[in-house]
Write a structure and sequence with these properties.
Layout lengths: L1 H14 L11 H35 L5 H15 L3 H11 L6 E3 L6 E3 L3 H26 L3 H9 L4 H31 L11 H11 L4 H30 L7
Antiparallel strand pairs: 1-2
Helix pairs in contact: 2-5, 2-7, 2-8, 3-5, 4-5, 5-7, 6-7, 7-9, 8-9
């Protein structure tokens, strides 16, 4: 069955030279696609998780009694919202990366940076999306009725308990539609990691069509389909989650 599959696409490449699906009949190119897709999924999952954590934490700090803390959070938001994510990525990797400690190899000569290009991509993109998530969760918090918070205070809840047990669960439901949009944009933004040579799907795809110009159109098609599928899974999951968490009167 597999041989017939590969033979079919090998024949397509011979009959239609501009449509060489080389990754379907060359094991090495297929391995590059699989590896690139794995890195894309890794970046997407890690950035989604860390950006949500940043958003939740930042939204809580925005309500701090300390003016300095609120200004720091606001400065972070303005910095990451008002500069291009690609520039941020280059800044983190090339500028801040110069100050990253290195690990010396067993030979005493080679040095490996403690944070790899993959690590810097996760850090940079997480902070970028996290800035938007802070504002998303802040809007959700403001949608929680003040009477709900006052009732919790009357029962003796601390500020952290009120946020964790009452405000955040309600605000999260309100924030899910906007959060969904931001996380979709984040997944698509992972392609910018190509700028620091992270071997994600776009990086490997460019490598394939540079090596095999006849595979340009098929590889581009595969790239589009892969991201449609990846984003589709995220949107489906977020929509199901939103539906299951919905409470009448909170977030529609």
């Amino acid at each position: 069955m597999l041989e017939a599959f590969t033979e079919f696409f090998r024949q397509v490449a011979e009959d239609y030279p501009r449509w060489n699906f080389i990754f379907f009949h060359d094991a090495r190119q297929w391995a590059r696609i699989v590896s690139g897709f794995q890195y894309t999924v890794l970046l997407s999952i890690a950035c989604v998780i860390f950006s949500v954590i940043i958003g939740v934490t930042g939204a809580w700090l925005q309500g701090s009694s300390s003016r300095l803390t609120r200004n720091v959070v606001q400065g972070y938001i303005q910095f990451f919202r008002n500069t291009p994510p690609f520039v941020q990525l280059l800044f983190f990797y090339f500028a801040l990366g110069q100050f990253t400690p290195s690990i010396t190899g067993d030979d005493g000569w080679t040095e490996t940076a403690l944070i790899s290009n993959v690590g810097w991509a996760i850090i940079s993109l997480s902070f970028f999306a996290g800035a938007f998530n802070v504002e998303i969760f802040r809007s959700g918090i403001e949608a929680v009725p003040e009477s709900t918070v006052e009732a919790a205070e009357a029962l003796g809840f601390t500020r952290l308990q009120i946020y964790k047990e009452i405000v955040l669960p309600l605000a999260f439901r309100v924030s899910l539609p906007s959060l969904n949009n931001n996380l979709v944009n984040l997944v698509k933004t992972t392609t910018q990691a190509i700028g620091i040579a992270v071997p994600e799907l776009l990086y490997e795809s460019v490598g394939i069509w540079n090596d095999y110009p006849s595979a340009l159109y098929p590889t581009m098609l595969m790239l589009f389909v892969s991201f449609i599928a990846l984003v589709g899974v995220l949107v489906f999951g977020m929509n199901r989650w939103e539906k299951n968490l919905r409470i009448p009167g909170y977030g529609g």
